[in-house]
Design brief:
Elements lengths: L16 H19 L1 H6 L21 H13 L2
Length: about 80
C-alpha cells in the first residue's frame, strides 16, 4: 500500500508486539536506505524513515486464510 504495510506475523507470547514492530521497521529501513542511498542525503540528522506508531490486531477465532484474503483485498482497494 502506498502509505502503510500489512504484515501477518506469528510469534511466541513472550515476544512483545512493540519489539516485532521495531525489528520490522528497522530491517525495512536498512533495506530501503541500502537500495536508495540518495534518499539518506535528504534526511535531516534527527529524522527517522518511519513513523514510530503501529497497529496490532489479534486474529481471534478467524482462520489464517481469512486474514490473508483480507490483506490481499487491501491491494485491490487502492
Amino acid at each position: 500500500m502506498p502509505d502503510h504495510v500489512h504484515c501477518f506475523v506469528g510469534a511466541l507470547p513472550s515476544v512483545s508486539p512493540s519489539h516485532i514492530a521495531k525489528i520490522l521497521k528497522g530491517a525495512a529501513s536498512c533495506i530501503f536506505l541500502r537500495d536508495n542511498p540518495s534518499f539518506r542525503k535528504t534526511m535531516k540528522g534527527s529524522e527517522h524513515l518511519w513513523n514510530p506508531s503501529y497497529y496490532v490486531g489479534t486474529v481471534g477465532d478467524m482462520s489464517k486464510d481469512v486474514v490473508l484474503r483480507y490483506i490481499e483485498r487491501q491491494k485491490q482497494d487502492i
